[in-house]
Amino acid sequence: MTLYGEKLPPADDRPTVQVTAVSWPGDEPDPTAGGGRPTGGRSRRVRLLLAGGVVAAVLAAVGGAGAYAYAGDVPRGTTVLGAELGGRSRAEAARELRAELERRAAALSAPVSVKVGEQTTQVKPADVGLAVDVDATVAAAAAAEAHPVSRLLGSRTVDPVVTVDPARLDAALGRAMGAQGREMTMPAIIFTGTTPKPVYPKPALTLDPPGSADAVKKGWLSGQLVTVPLVEKHPATTREEVDRLVTELAKPAVAAPVTLATDKGSVTISPTAIARSLRFSADATGKLTPRVDVKRLRTALGDKLATIEVEPKDAGLSIVSGKPKVVPGKAGQQLDSDALSRDLLAVLSKADGRTVTAQLKPAEPELTEAKLAELGIKERVSTFTTRFPGGLSSPRSQNIVQAAKDVDGTIVKSGETFSLNGHTGERGYDQGYQDAPTIVDGKLVPGVGGGVSQFTTTLFNATYYAGLEDVEHKPHSFYFSRYPSVIESTIYYPALDFRFRNNTPHGVLIDTSYTSSTITVSIWSTKIYDSVKTEYSPRRNITQPKTVYLEPGPDCIEAAGSEGFTQDAFRVITKDGRVIKREKFSWTYQPEPRFICGPKPPS
What we know:
This protein is α+β, with helices and mostly antiparallel strands.
């Protein structure tokens, strides 16, 4: 190829620029020169300069557009909540976005309408931590397309990054959910004597915290009603798996005894002892896991293990002349609990080969005198007494006394949570409990362990007036005048429990005593509060009982009936001369029907 008579090198990969030649005055060819070529070098230089200038102009234009498109950290045409952030540095974009949020402050702080199930509530953004994360939003806005044309000509709207406090939001929505939700019924297998009975799981109807947070974050700035659905959460163990455990383990476990062989002799573990020690415990997800509770097994075997074991004895406290006195502990020699639990569980499903070989090892007391002295149990900090009718001979009174004996002397360390169900286990005939009236489906019926609710109420009040943390309790459906209203508790194994936490820096001793008509629970520790008192609101929403006529028979129990009402109780705790806590307890009692065993009289 030749340009203006110059021979160029062979074509390469460089682009070719097409330039149209123009004539300038004085650039005409010299007729005296041969070959028609210009006589001087000036014209050639001018043309090359012209070509170079055109190329430079084109490149300058492209370069200028690129510089414009890539100016700032945020691509041009980018907006957030109507604020133009494009072409700005991150710092400038953040300032502009904060200014826009200030302009919208009233709207952003307005309550959000949230529908939870069938209920609608108003949620204040500040109460649940709803906010726009400015830095995260600017970072999202800066993440633009790489192509310069998109940056030069494009436009886009970036959603703000919204944050929320999941725990505070869940608490607020939980209050709105109210009675619409239901607790998960945990699976269980319990023994009545040696008969296993399944407790089938039922799903909870509740909130899904991550889903709730996403819905509220997405809907907050829309100004529209935000819908948060209730979801079912199923226990990890199904009804079919409960039945399988009954068939494959619980029933075979108590079908025959097990022989426990040691170097010091053998012991026969009866089906009754197996039933008392075989536990089916569900974790927080509802997963049911069988295990052998060796502590319960030892209790069930009683003196049988005395021939081969020497049980260690924890140091303890007894109340002598109004003061706690240390009872020394003692070392022993026992079966390896972990190995025994594992090996015994392994043979319970078998029909044959039901022999377990166990090894003895030294056993130190869990609570030594030195550890006990560190707990700081030195004085009585509360006591509570309730009265019961019928004397000590009635089955109901016997159940109250049995529960008191089971709990007496229990020490709860600082930070530990005491569970009454966990401490006593199932309260059945084998555990010394008898049939007595219990409330089932709104009426009194005979049931094993009836009356333990009175001990539960007494224990609850003793811990309440000691200022200990209430973890779980449930008042009765009906009001009984022998209990203080609102601050009382029922119990039913395994569904309803009473639990308290020792939230003090000292240990706690539960001391129980009884007479022919009273049950008393005292809490011993180190006193840290001036006083713990109760203030009541007036009763409200009073409802009258109705009369119900029942089929006469041995299972029919008459009741006089009682009014229903709602009331609040406030636990007021003072320390160093001032109120440090005012805790509200509220309950609504249903009117207890007047039950009459007999036919309804004619109108």
